[in-house]
Amino acid sequence: QGLQTILDKLRVQHHYCLYCGCKFESAGALANECPGPNEDDH
Fold first, then answer.
1. 4-33 pLDDT, tens per residue?
2. Residue 15 C-beta-side C-alpha neighbours within 13 Å
3. Residue 1: per-residue pLDDT
4. Which pTM was predicted?
5. Number of structural domains, the chain?
6. Please, what's the b/e burial string for 7-37 (b: 16 or more CB within 10 A of its CB; e: otherwise)?
7. Torsion of CA 24, 4, 13, 21, to 10 degrees
8. How crowded is residue 1: how many other Cβ atoms within 10 Å of its Cβ?
9. Which pLDDT score is estimated for 3?
């Protein structure tokens, strides 16, 4: 598995963003509070 695949799985299944460094309570919270799925977004 590539890094992006792992990061995508963390976001979808666990509402976790590596770049924010935290787990969000829901997919909605992740979408609202995280600037994006890529390092450049942060």
1. 999 999 999 999 999 999 999 999 999 999
2. 11
3. 72
4. 0.86
5. 1
6. beeebeeebbbeeeeeebeeeeebeeebeeb
7. -20
8. 7
9. 92
Range of the structural domain that residue 17 is part of: 3-41
DSSP letter for 40, please. G
Owner of token pair 């979408």: 31
Structure tokens at 11: 């976001």
Does the pLDDT value for residue 37 go beyond 80?
Answer: yes
- Which distant-in-sequence residues (6+ apart) come within 8 Å of 28 by Cβ? none
Q: Which residues pair with 22 in a beta bridge?
A: 17
The full length of the chain comes to: 42
